[in-house]
Amino acid sequence: DAQTDLQHTLEEESPWWQVDLGSLHTLGVLDVYNRSENFAYRLRNFYVLVSPTPFPDGSGLGDLLSDGEVESYYFSGQAGPQESIPLNTEGRYVRIQLSGTGILHMAEVEIAGCTTSSPNTSFKASFERLDYLSGNREFDTVGLAPNPTSDKVQVVGPSKNTVSKILIYDMQGRQVKEITNIRGDSQRVVESVDVSNLVKATYVVIVFLEDGSSYSRRLIKI
């Protein structure tokens, strides 16, 4: 339900949301979905920033706009229910940042493109739940990329939280895969899961965190 997943930052100077896609990708289009009722005006006059390397800690918006490694795309005015922003660049880190003081409020972000190391492999990451953010820190969320996939999918876990296990279920509720030896680092968990042996269908991926929370995402095997 898009309305129940609508979360936001505090009111502050140039608040942002960002995601680490886990590896370098050739990014095609970013779709951002706005809320559809009273507070739609909050998503307005924002930048989409793309970088192959992490955004430096403490960098302001002006610093990033003048950084030669960072590609920037500006959206002027209030966003509609869905806005598509062509990126056509390579990057791993993607940030959406308001240009001035305000409350950043979104429902969903989708990023489509292809894997840089394999140009014929399509890539789509959907971040459906953008959790509450207080201050300039990342939203904690989980993404799958590429999705759809024919062989492997990267499970991108939340920053500063530990993934304990990943379970995959078919649409009949049967568990078809379990992953417990999760790799990653203190900044991000990225687990590559081999799904090449699964039949072509839609699956549910459930990611369990050490703090007891969990995220579910749909995965399309092609």
UniProtKB/TrEMBL annotation:
Q: Does the keyword Electron transport apply?
A: no
The record, for InterPro entries, names: BG_Antigen-Binding_Lectin, FA58C, Galactose-bd-like_sf, Secre_tail
Domain of life of the organism encoding this protein: Bacteria
Q: Which UniProt keywords apply?
A: Signal
- Gene3D superfamilies listed in its UniProt record: Galactose-binding domain-like
Entry's Pfam families? F5_F8_type_C_2, Por_Secre_tail
Residue span(s) of domain F5/8 type C: 1-114
Q: What's the protein here called?
A: Por secretion system C-terminal sorting domain-containing protein
